[in-house]
């Protein structure tokens, strides 16, 4: 009876979460959206009107004409108004209101991703609390489905942004995307052959356990098989997936490097600059967490004199690694306002750079140069938030499917590998059919659980989380080198 009440409680929680999320979709003005939180702190630069530019240039004309007319071979030629580039122009700033964001490029995708991520994270927290208090055995963790949906939406958005860059004919974005995809494919193949004495993912152990479990499962079904997939094919498909992820994270990493440099210039406080540096190095810290000679072996068994004194158990280290990733993700989320404001300041930065040049510029081109920065704000916000969401929910899946614990000193029990409790109340005739169907489904899912074990998920999700952090750091490091040295030259 107690277990049945907990099941009903869990079902009610997810129904309420679904109703709340449906309300958010029907009433977008009531949604929790990131732009509603940071908009009160961000200021964007408004483009000047033609009258203001004409007044500054000393070319104020009566009648308010926007273009000059000139006869050329009997035809009237419309020529846009031009002004000197060294004009004394000061852009006006305005706090971002929610109504200003409605016309931004990729605003619906940004709002959808943020709202759904918040809802999915809330479901995950409630589900984790329920599993912690009730300790059910054999019950499906619904938060896994929500996290998988979040990852699917993130990949779809990153694919859309990459396709937008890929379709551009000029600028070299297509060549850059192909180059980084090939680079990350080679890098993934090189990483996958590294022994686990250096990179501790557990991928080899997980794949071996998966192959043996799949062979036993097929034998129990009366089928003969040498295994579901060879190790070489598995690593080849994994390398192709890593290449796609690296291509998707190329432009977010390059953009992060530029925003990092601008944010350091904008914020002169020592504490803020320290946090910005830690935020930039956060992917590198995550990468080092899986390098055994640098972190795990040194932290767990430091050499003091002639003896090796273990400081913590392996389970404690795995838990601390999860917490470290979550804290670094929280830091990156806290620094989003500084980076977005640094991006918005590119409008003023472009005007100051224009003043140093000789010649003239049309008023329309000047207005486009200023307005384009604010118009692509949601694109930049997606490039900053989407990799963060991908890394966060990959880590949450690693904890749930890998059978880890949030406790610093986890016990040996794990809800992912627990056996189902067969004791319960005797149902009635109507409930008997439901119980029989549920039992059949449970047996089928139990067979799949013997194939897709926590060891497999630990190896696969650990590698993917490590790879996302490695791609982010590689692309941002290249972007830092490009903006700091190549652009300066």
How would you sum up this structure, described in words?
The chain is mainly alpha-helical and 489 residues long. It has a domain at 154-414 and 430-486. Helices cover 66% and strands 6% of the residues. It has 18 helices and 8 strands. The chain has helices at residues 2-26, 34-38, 50-57, 107-134, 143-166, 173-192, 203-220, 231-248, 250-266, 270-288, 292-300, 314-334, 336-344, 346-355, 363-375, 377-401, 429-451, 454-486; strands at residues 43-46, 67-72, 75-80, 82-84, 92-95, 303-304, 307-308, 360-362. It has a two-stranded antiparallel sheet with strand order 1-5. Strands 2-3 form a two-stranded antiparallel ribbon. Strand 6 (303-304) and strand 7 form a beta hairpin. Helix 4 runs parallel beside helix 16, helix 12 packs antiparallel against helix 16 (377-401) and helix 16 (377-401) packs antiparallel against helix 18 (454-486). The radius of gyration is 28 Å and the shape is elongated. It is found in: Membrane. Keywords: Glycoprotein, Membrane, Transmembrane, Transmembrane helix. It is a multi-pass membrane protein.
Unreliably modeled segments: 1-10, 12-35, 60-71, 410-428
**Global structural class:** mainly alpha
Order of helices and strands: HHEHEEEEHHHHHHHHEEHHHEHHHH
User: Strand percentage, roughly?
Assistant: 5-15%
The termini sit apart by 73 Å
Radius of gyration: 28 Å
- Main pleated-sheet profile: 2 strands, antiparallel
